[in-house]
Amino acid sequence: MTALLGDFQPDVVCIGSVYGHNGRLAILALEQGFDFVCEKPLATDRETLSQLHKLTVSGERRIIGEFVMRWEAVFTKARECIRSGIIGEVASIQAQKTYKFGKKRPDFYKARKLFGGIIPWVAVHAIDYAAWCTGLQYESVTAVQGNCCHPEYEEMEDYASMLFQMTGGVPRISSTLLWEKLAP
């Protein structure tokens, strides 16, 4: 990739690999001076996340995560209503997403280092749009996750539940994620 970027000199790099490789590819792009757009999760471990932060904290290089749900009509309208004061103060935000597991997920879902987890892959959308719509910041989080229905994917969570405390003390987002259980 280093030679390709050096030879081609793109304006921006788009990264969308097996999730566990996104962070390493992003670091290569940043180290060569490129901004990038990346599929989530941007990182699947703290070391990679820390390195991405270090390379972007100055503001000279930019990361754009593919958080497209915030641009859906319902969320842009919610943002408009919240920001204009039309609905008053936000007291609670709730989100839920249930996925069909399908007959089989690719094998990389079996390895935490390649999949990254259900929270940074799925829940990150609700985490993003709740802050984007409200303008509030996150102060704390409590979360549980695990695998109760897909033992053949032992490192993959098939459920997660989170509760976030946001600025102002009252607003919260609770989010639950589930993979549907396959019938025996």
Summarize the structure.
This protein is of the alpha/beta class and 184 residues long.
Topology record:
Layout: H1 2-8, E1 13-15, H2 19-31, E2 36-38, H3 46-56, E3 63-65, H4 73-84, E4 93-99, H5 112-115, H6 118-134, E5 138-146, E6 159-166, E7 172-179
Parallel strand pairs: 1-2, 2-3, 4-7
Antiparallel strand pairs: 5-6, 6-7
Give your account of this protein's structure.
With 184 residues, the chain is of the alpha/beta class. The protein folds into two domains: 2-65, Rossmann fold (3-Layer(aba) Sandwich), CATH 3.40.50; 90-179, Dihydrodipicolinate Reductase, domain 2 (2-Layer Sandwich). Helices cover 35% and strands 22% of the residues. The protein has helices at 2-8, 19-31, 46-56, 73-84, 112-115, 118-134; strands at residues 13-15, 36-38, 63-65, 93-99, 138-146, 159-166, 172-179. It has a four-stranded mixed β-sheet, with helices on one face. Strand 1, helix 2 (19-31) and strand 2 (36-38) form a beta-alpha-beta unit. Helix 2 runs parallel beside helix 3 (46-56) and helix 4 crosses helix 6. The longest helix has 17 residues, at 118-134. The model has no long low-confidence stretch (mean pLDDT 87).
Low-confidence stretches: none
- CATH-defined fold name of the largest domain: Dihydrodipicolinate Reductase, domain 2
- Report the CATH C-level class of the largest domain: Alpha Beta
Largest sheet composition? 4 strands, mixed
Structural class: alpha/beta
Nearest-integer average pLDDT: 87
Number of strands: 7
**DSSP summary: helix tally:** 6
Task: Specify the CATH architecture of the largest domain.
Answer: 2-Layer Sandwich
Tell me the helix content. Answer: 25-40%
CATH homologous superfamily assignment of the largest domain: Dihydrodipicolinate Reductase, domain 2
Proportion of β residues?
15-25%
Rg, Cα atoms, Å = 18 Å
**H/E topology pattern:** HEHEHEHEHHEEE
| Order of adjacent strands in the largest pleated sheet | 4-7-6-5
Tell me, briefly, the overall form.
Answer: globular
Number of domains: 2
Distance between the termini: 44 Å
